[in-house]
Design brief:
Blueprint lengths: L1 H10 L4 H8 L3 H8 L6 H10 L6 H4 L13 H17 L2
Helix pairs in contact: 2-3
GO molecular function: DNA binding
Protein name: Antirepressor protein Cro
InterPro entries: Cro/C1-type_HTH, Lambda_DNA-bd_dom_sf, YdaS_toxin-like
């Protein structure tokens, strides 16, 4: 997961320092998260929003967001459900 977070930060063209500024924390805190330290529950959704939902709450903290769509804004969750409905129509 942590390599996934590092990769997604890079893919978004962001830096750990930039994310830290947006959250209001020292860069070292974000570095610790990217290197395997647990992200506090109170920061998960904030980090996902900064990352424009390219990383999900489930990816960051599956212990508190056990389902892949848990914690997603309704737009993302509804879109995921619509996709499943369409796929299920083709495969009864």
């Amino acid at each position: 997961m942590h390599e996934c977070l590092k990769n997604k930060i890079h893919q978004k063209g962001l830096s750990q320092a930039g994310i830290a500024r947006l959250i209001g924390l020292p860069q070292q805190v974000v570095s610790r998260w990217a290197n395997g330290h647990q992200i506090p529950a109170s920061r998960v959704l904030q980090l996902c929003e900064i990352m424009e939902w390219t990383v999900t709450p489930h990816e960051l903290r599956p212990d508190i967001y056990p389902n892949p769509t848990d914690g997603l804004p309704c737009g993302n969750k509804c879109m995921a459900n619509e996709s499943l409905a369409v796929n299920n129509e083709n495969h009864p």
